[in-house]
UniProtKB/TrEMBL annotation:
This is Uncharacterized protein. Keywords: Membrane, Transmembrane, Transmembrane helix. The keyword Transmembrane helix applies. The chain crosses the membrane at residues 16-36, 43-61. It comes from Dreissena polymorpha (Zebra mussel).
Length: 70
């Protein structure tokens, strides 16, 4: 009976620490992917922002250039 009680106590501690470990593991795991996708989309939209910015910049540049000379 004492052996059974000790075994149950042992497994209860084991599952307790396993639960805590798995909680922190998934916590950092999902945070890692959250920040990964956040920065991924951030740089994605930043790239397209710069792309369109320079596109419109050259567009207006040539527009005023040709309107000035023609």
């Amino acid at each position: 009976m004492l052996l059974l009680q000790l075994l149950l106590q042992h497994y209860s501690y084991f599952y307790y620490y396993y639960y805590i470990y798995s909680y922190y593991y998934y916590f950092y795991y999902y945070h890692f992917y959250y920040y990964y996708y956040f920065y991924y989309y951030y740089f994605y939209y930043y790239y397209y922002y710069c792309y369109y910015y320079y596109y419109y910049y050259y567009y207006y540049y040539y527009y005023y250039y040709f309107s000035y000379y023609y």
